[in-house]
Amino acid sequence: MTHESVIATWRQLLHPGRSWVLFANGTCVILMEPDGDLAGQARDLLREFGPVQAGTPAGDFTTIGLDDAPGWAVTCHHPDILTYVADDELEADDDLTVGLFGRGKRDQDGHELVVVHVEDKRS
User: What is the pLDDT of residues 86-117, one digit of tens each?
Assistant: First the structure.
């Protein structure tokens, strides 16, 4: 999985008029009210809502099988933060395994905060 393939996947999945930021491990922050420095705005959201804290809502996730791309989106306790898990990243494809893997990627992105792409759709 390359950053370019993940960018293409998110472009395919998300509303074309939305601004969003992609982090190094596949976590996408959708900016519903983009303002100023989009990378900084997304980092602030992911810094707060990305790291996993067991026993709290930050540990929760839902796994969504994708019809328009090979893989899954893993949600978290913030509705605008999703993590992409490609179908070739795991041998197992059950919701628990995929969800835990995606949650781990979000946790890593929430600590590292490395932006790899900004999709700025502001007019």
Answer: 999 999 889 999 999 999 999 999 999 999 99
Q: Give residue limits of the domains in the chain.
A: 3-119
Distance from C-alpha of 120 to C-alpha of 123, rounded to nearest angstrom: 9
For the segment 20-51, what is each residue's pLDDT rounded down to a tens digit?
999 999 999 999 999 999 999 999 999 999 99
Which element (helix H / strand E) includes 89?
none
E-assigned strand segments in 7-108? 19-23, 27-31, 63-65, 71-75, 81-86
Structure letter (DSSP) for residue 4:
H
Rounded to two decimals, the pTM is: 0.93
Beta strand 27-31 with 81-86 is antiparallel
Please tell me the distance from the alpha carbon of residue 118 to that of residue 19, in angstroms, as a whole number. 8
